[in-house]
Amino acid sequence: MKILTPAKINPLLYILSKREDGFHELYMHMVPVSLFDTLTFTHNDGQGLNFKVSGAEFSEPPEENLVVRAVRIFELESGETVNLNVSWKNIYLPVRDWAAEVEMRLELYRL
């Protein structure tokens, strides 16, 4: 299964207080862009979860990624082992490219 996940840009982002669940309260303005990340799921033969990211590098370990965390919660709640290969192709958009996209989108919202 392949899922396209819409990309967005946060030209305004304030990280506020940390919540009890470890996430943060945010104040932000999100602008949708005409790009998508891709999540691909394929079954494997009893190998558990294999998670790979391409297109961008992240400093967080895979177990802290929200996709992996969601799978681990599902496994705990269901008592089932997830045997999937999950591939996340991340779109990296340099600042110079997304600035023009943001301006265009903001103009659309002003109409």
Distance between the termini: 38 Å
Beta strands, count: 4
In terms of quaternary structure, what is this?
single chain
Order of strands across the main sheet? 1-2-4-3
Cα-atom radius of gyration: 17 Å
Order of helices and strands: EEEHEH
Secondary-structure-based class equals: alpha+beta
Number of helices: 2
Note the beta-strand portion: 35-45%
Helix content: 25-40%
Low-confidence parts: none
**Tally of structural domains:** 1
Describe the sheet with the most strands: 4 strands, mixed
Average per-residue pLDDT, rounded, comes to 84
Task: Note the overall shape.
Answer: globular
Write the layout of secondary structure elements.
Layout: E1 2-18, E2 24-43, E3 49-54, H1 66-78, E4 84-89, H2 95-110
Parallel strand pairs: 3-4
Antiparallel strand pairs: 1-2, 2-4
Notable traits:
111 residues; alpha+beta; four-stranded mixed beta sheet; 2 helices
